[in-house]
Amino acid sequence: MHLITLNPWSETDIFQMVEESLNLKKYPEKYRHAVGGKSLCLLFQKTSTRTRCAGEIGITQLGGHAHYLDWRTTNFALADLGDEMRVLSAYVDIILARFLKHTELVEATAAATVPVINGCCDKYHPTQALGDLMTIQEHLGRLEGVKLCFIGVHNNVCNSLIAAGMKVGIEVTVVAPEINPAAVDKELWDAAAQKGLYKTLDTDTPNISPALEKVIAESDIVYTDTWVDMEFFTDPSFAEERERRLKKMAPYQLNAELLEGHACKIMHCLPAHHGYEITGELVNDERSIIFDQSENRLHSLKTILLRLLAHA
Ligand code: CP
Ligand code: NVA
Questions:
Q1: Residue 120 alpha carbon, nearest atom of ligand 1
Q2: pLDDT tens, 127-146?
Q3: CB of 57 shorter than 6 A to ligand 2
Q4: 254 φ/ψ angles, rounded to the nearest 5 degrees
Q5: In this structure, what is the dihedral angle of CA atoms 5, 6, 10, 11, given to the nearest 10 degrees?
Q6: In whole angstroms, what is the distance from residue 113 CA to residue 139 CA?
Q7: Does an H or E element contain 18, and which?
Q8: Which tens digit of pLDDT belongs to each residue from 282-308?
Q9: Which residues does ligand 1 sit against, CB inside 6 Å?
């Protein structure tokens, strides 16, 4: 059993994991020896603060051990992917992998003989979405019927929110004048739309403001994420595209003016780029539940580790 996308996981699995995560947060001491010396390897091609720390600290708090591997300092960088994954599988009990490309993650997972968790690829970020569900349950006391709008570039985080929302009855409206090419997943979008749990706002209009205002007014939660994924942020070959996006996305920035008079909660997976997709003021606004979201990555990842190790 792996966690690469949320799609194959059942509704019951997801609801149970949210409940278990809340329990784990409340009674961490009950889980101190829960994994009895098991080892987690974190294999990362990209940078990370939350996912890495949640994995390393989470397994330690469960009585296990973490081993971090920066891809670039290993022979993964030059050897056969399948060979290296088989070797890693012989050393550890579970792997948390952050790959650039979803396709490569799938290939690596096929060669692994222990559970693999997707720690964020270019298409999905399932561990983020599970932590987000936990945070929504914590703050709104329910998941079913919650209205969430994602404003920004349709990306990995947005896809996993749609996939998670579809399992628990969250209605996701996406306001995204840009879609990351790697994030296109028509099958997921169609399945969620058929359940009435995913729709998009037409952004191809000269004045988006009234429609945007209406969506925000109808939403319990307004969520955003970076306009440029981390691997492209300092990539010189992406510089022109980055400038184009910053210009195009400016009207979609979450700021005090846009959210004035709205009681919605504000979410962001972090890292945030203050002054771009969100202002620093809103990150710290009283409606913001962003830092609970980031804390909950720890508790929810512990739940994921427990569940996958129990099935291994
Ligand atoms: N939200 C998230 O995954 O953060 P990191 O990239 O810091 O892990
Ligand atoms: N969507 C962003 C943030 C993930 C935590 C990215 O992939 O860089």
A1: 3
A2: 999 999 999 999 999 999 99
A3: no
A4: -80, 115
A5: 180
A6: 38
A7: helix 11-26
A8: 999 999 999 999 999 999 999 999 999
A9: 48-51, 120, 128, 269-271
